[in-house]
Design a protein that fits this description.
Blueprint (H helix, E strand, L loop, with lengths): L9 H22 L9 H16 L12 E3 L5 H10 L5 H5 L32 H18 L10 E6 L6 H4 L2 H6 L5 E7 L14 H11 L3 E5 L6 H6 L4 H8 L2 H7 L4 H7 L5 H7 L4 H10 L6 H13 L5 E6 L24 H11 L23 H12 L1
Parallel strand pairs: 1-2, 2-3, 3-5, 4-5
Length: 396
């Protein structure tokens, strides 16, 4: 009942997100023939974290206020380029120049204002640079306002980070400073997909609980968006607290295992560990169990993300961290989702792209795949998706 509705067209936002997912994966895959690298799985997990912000929260600098400041997670850059392509600021040629030196027409691997000043405001790679810089930016904004130099009191600093990135010493070095200064103009959004560059962030432990304790201990407000709507029915059935206890017990590596195993395995290993859960499982279909354990995460639903962002902005007196649980490689298919190596996987096959197209319900024809090359997708400059995207940005 406390979860607010998203004040927009959720269906159109889902379509926009689908196009962005497709084009982000396509640009990295197309670039793989040159061996330039890139990352597909990170943005796939974080797409809704960005889309919800762009549509409802991130204020631009063209309006009356001073605008918000965004520190974008470096490995998610293909998704931001895909969104700029959708709204007409980048062309297909730009996307094909990702990570290439192309006479000033290339796209840098990661956010960097020197290389692309009209799109990027802050560099965020090497990892750990973003969170530390964001704290001092929020503190400097407070200084500018308090000293009467410039009123930036309406500016909010958003830092998008990875759970593995939080092991960098710079990531947590200034947490206590942020809370001592009462920087409620700062929000960290940590994409907790439970994976780092080469495997689980905490195989035998739980990174979300670890980060929650760390931030609470440093005096931050903590907002968690962990489980999606499909889990609501399970929590309602959990009259004894057995489900919550079991979720707290299962280490992250086993959560990753559930994301790749069938319902029979999950029934036995997860629900079979407690008699009360075994009884609960009898009320659940195999499809329901797969939906919950494979796909349904708080970071993958606009309504859950919107509620978390709204709560962060309404909290006063301290900075906020949002711990958003996701699946790394979400919507990319069984060959990508939750695979330990997916951070280093640079391309999808044509068949995997066709399955992704069907999964996202995008109007891309088989004939659009010419000579085995995946096409970019665009609904048209005057499409409802592009008009909505541009209207939302104009409103902010």
């Amino acid at each position: 009942a406390a979860e607010p509705a998203v004040p927009g067209d959720e269906a159109l936002e889902a379509r926009i997100t689908a196009w962005n997912r497709w084009n982000a994966a396509a640009m990295v895959t197309r670039g793989s023939k040159y061996g330039v690298g890139g990352h597909i799985a990170t943005f796939a997990s974080a797409a809704w974290l960005y889309e919800t912000g762009f549509n409802h929260f991130f204020h631009g600098k063209e309006g009356d206020g001073s605008g918000d400041q965004l520190y974008i997670q470096g490995h998610a850059s293909p998704g931001i380029y895909a969104r700029a392509f959708l709204d007409g600021r980048l062309t297909e040629q730009h996307l094909d120049n990702f990570r290439q030196e192309a006479g000033g027409n290339g796209l840098p691997s990661y956010p960097h204002p020197r290389r692309l000043p009209w799109l990027w405001e802050f560099p965020t790679v090497s990892m750990g640079l973003g969170p530390l810089s964001a704290i001092y930016q929020a503190r400097f904004n407070r200084y500018l306002t308090n000293r009467g130099i410039k009123d930036v009191s309406s500016s909010h600093v958003w830092a998008f980070l990875g759970d593995g990135e939080m092991d960098e010493p710079e990531s947590t070095a200034a947490l206590a400073l942020a809370s001592r200064e009462g920087l409620d103009n700062l929000t960290f959004v940590i994409n907790c997909n439970l994976q780092r560059l080469d495997g689980p962030v905490r195989a035998n432990f739980k990174i979300v609980q670890e980060l929650e304790a760390q931030f609470r201990g440093a005096g931050w407000n903590v907002v968690k968006s962990l489980w999606g709507t499909a889990w609501d029915e399970l929590f309602q059935l959990d009259t004894t607290g057995a489900l919550l206890r079991r979720l707290r017990q299962v280490p992250d590596a086993q959560v990753q295992t559930y994301q790749t195993r069938d319902a029979a395995y999950i029934r036995q290993d997860f629900f079979g560990a407690d008699p009360a859960l075994a009884e609960m499982a009898k009320l659940l279909s195999d499809d329901k169990i797969v939906e919950c354990f494979h796909f349904s995460r708080g970071g993958h639903e606009a309504r859950k993300v919107y509620a978390a962002y709204k709560a962060a902005l309404e909290h006063k007196g301290a900075p906020t961290v949002i711990l958003a649980q996701t699946v790394k490689g979400h919507t990319l298919g069984d060959g990508f989702a939750s695979k330990n190596a997916n951070h280093q996987m640079k391309k999808l096959t044509v068949d995997e792209f066709k399955a992704m197209r069907d999964r996202l319900d995008l109007p891309i024809k088989d004939s659009d795949f010419v000579d085995g090359q995946v096409p970019y997708g665009h609904p048209g400059a005057d499409s409802p998706e592009v008009r909505y995207l541009q209207e939302r940005r104009a409103a902010l």
